[in-house]
Structures
1.
Amino acid sequence: MSRAPAQLPLGVGLRDDATFANFHPGPNATLVDRLVHQLDDDGEPFLYVWGVSGTGRSHLLQAACHAASDRDGRALYLPLAELGHFPPLMLEEVERLDLVAIDDLDRVVGRKRWEEALFHAFNRLRDAGKRLVIAAEAPPRQLPVKLPDLASRLTWGMTFHLQGLDDAGRLAALQLRARGRGMQLPNEVARYILHRGPRRLDALFETLEALDRASLSAQRKLTIPFVKQALGW
């Protein structure tokens, strides 16, 4: 039986739907493949993922933790947008885990205590042969890191730019997410949602969740008139 991913006492958990199977890679197939196989014997020790908000960084890091759990591994997801105001005590003894996924790195760079803790955690994970994936909004050389040794470490691994999807990719991602929720989303309705809805994928998926709840409550199929009524469009 697989163990649940290691979680912080602070209550940071993983979204159930944040899996690789529920992510449309589009132009990011190589990145997803590296993440899927990171815990393999020949997997990458360190991956750095950067991209603008809403492109799926957090989804992929949580998916990596789910995948580690499925392989009986222990993983820890650290979203620094939520945890950065705490002292970096959660980085102690991370080398006992199989995978550490640090999200929103840009939220703590420039802060001495955090930078030193990250540097030492990086070294301990490397020495123990464990895996690390870090995500931020900018590539490592563009982050205002003050500790030179940490700045150097951030360039050691493979760096990937998480690219946004074009309209065809956004349509495929929306349909994939709908199937994952057990929704029947006709193509014409999906195209209407893309045309009328938000551009950011995360906001688009929130719209889909709202429609799912509305259709279940009203016992109605998803049609363009129903979408207009449910969302006030």
2.
Amino acid sequence: MGRRILVIDDEQSVVESVRMILQDEDCITYGAQTGKKGLSKSKELHPDLIILDLNLPDIDGIKICEHLRKSNKTFSIPIIMLTARDNTKDIKKGLETGADDYITKPFDVDEFSARVKALFRRIEYIHTPSDILTCDDIVINIPNFSVTLKGKEISLTQKEFKLLCVLIKNKNKLLSQQFLYQEVWGFKEQPYGSFTLQAHISNLREKMGPSIASRITVIEGKGYKLKS
């Protein structure tokens, strides 16, 4: 069975565009034209990816993202936001809320396809290795997609999980932003003006708590380091 894609967008033309772009990638595309229907279908279908427009007629897309991340049924589903090209405020807020990536409207077909493929490759990478990562009180079970801190389970998104894995595998090493974008997002070059990495580091610090947050350090203009 193909991957299930849920597009939450009030424009049917966007749903059809996504369906056409991904039809050769063994994907089945579903549409929801309101936020309420989108939330319902998210729990019903448990799709492999949600493409979420931030400008919906009934519920703000940011609030939908928040709801999806707080629900036990949908917290781990990858989310790509669709937003206006110049709406950097919404992009930053969406990433901080838990979206994995964003694509600006109107989107380029090749870029859209490449971003979705890269996201699926990262998901496959996460679930393929059969090992356990540890760093002091942090235990990561990669096959089970679980993280515990002092025995307490921490809920992370797919990207936050991968980011933490990369930081732990390279603890005490200064990792450049370009390296992290390549390892976590699959980008060969650092996206210009992107808030993605900054937002995910911020989310990771908040979820892991002050004892870990203080050990994820930033060297301005150079990158990030997890101190053991």
3.
Amino acid sequence: MDHAGIATQSKVEDVLYKSTGQTRHDLGREKFLEKIWEWKEEYASLFRKQWAKVGLALDYSKERFTLDDEANKAVQKVFIDLYNKGYIYKDVKAVSWDVKLQTAISNIEVNNEPTTQLMYYIKYKVQETNEDLIVATVRTETLLSDVAIVYNPKDKKYLKYKGMHVIHPLTKKVLPIIADEYVDPNFGTGLMKLSAHAEADIDIIKKLGLEINESISKDGLINWPNSEFHGLERFEARKKIGEFLKERIY
């Protein structure tokens, strides 16, 4: 039996809160783990009864659960072997993060669904020429972590800006205008703002040796103390920042 960690934790937390009004933080780690084991035993027993009803004759002396001691030892050995071979390492990466469970989520546990979102077109003033470059984005809440504006080197209309800089509409920081082939010249205006809240962005930031600025906390709140948007929930901040820029003709 597989322990299905994230799904099980989410279910037990939901049951716990509905029945007692408590969270796992109220219980503490050890007490919460006890609740999870109780839930596991209840539903494992139900599974066995269901298997019996469909006619399965199983040797339960050979049953294994992914959190049993033997299974844990096997998993630990595999991870140690992979680490020793250099396949496991520490790095800065973008991950799918659950603000409720406070944990990273595997890509296979993420359900991607198409959504309709508002596209914002934002002006970045070119420092050297005083022109406006227009960047299209749906995620205005990530603006505070911008470190550069990027164009595709094959996009001729932006080649003249090579080596120039823009003034950020919110932070007023001076950011470089750089080229990278990742940018799709046919999306939006062909320009991409580079921030630390997407996998491709972080890869480009690391490749170019730029600074990684995170402006959203693990709770999904804007974390930028010197900003009027500090502490706002990320989706609320998306709207507020859009309104702020619109009022100032950005």
4.
Amino acid sequence: MHTLLIEDTVALAQTVVRYLANEDIACTLRTDGESGYIEAIQGNYDVIILDISLPKMSGIDVCRKLRAEGNTTPIIMLTSRATQEDIVAGLDYGADDYLTKPCDYRELVARIRALGRRGQSNKSTETIKIGKLEIDAQHRMVYFAGQEIHFSKKEFALLHYFATHRGYHIPKSELMEKVWGIYDNFEEGKVVEVYIGYLRKKIPGIIETRKGYGYTIKELF
């Protein structure tokens, strides 16, 4: 599962990111409404965690714009402003849930998972086909040349990210952030190379490296 956290209190945001990572929930962080809105429309997230009081664009405006544009990603409002007006405004503009700060992180995780399951059940079955590769995202199954290949949860998340960004060379730093929820950590970044090695071992030639640009998925026939 992959979440987007839009929160300008950096210490709190980093704590949430670490807690979610320990719960096997990847989390991308943006610290203002404008960059958060851009990330929300460009990315592919299961749940958005959105503060109301944000610089550059308020959480209410982010929520309103996303819903007006047809973005149906579940949204949890996470804020210290707990007035009835704030709650009503957030829900009226399309938020799915609401938590006040400080919140119990166990409750946050439970609500993220509940909304994530609901979001998945509302989506049609997603099957990605790239040459001989077929990825059944709903059932987390992978086939190559008609043969099923077993992938761990993290291997599947990495392969799926490559498949949904086909045609792009993805730098290691982006994979660290989007798949693992890790930011600017050289030592932790080595895990990306290890997992790309796992993918290549299971499907030889599937991932191509372009020095200075990153990695991309190849179409194998």
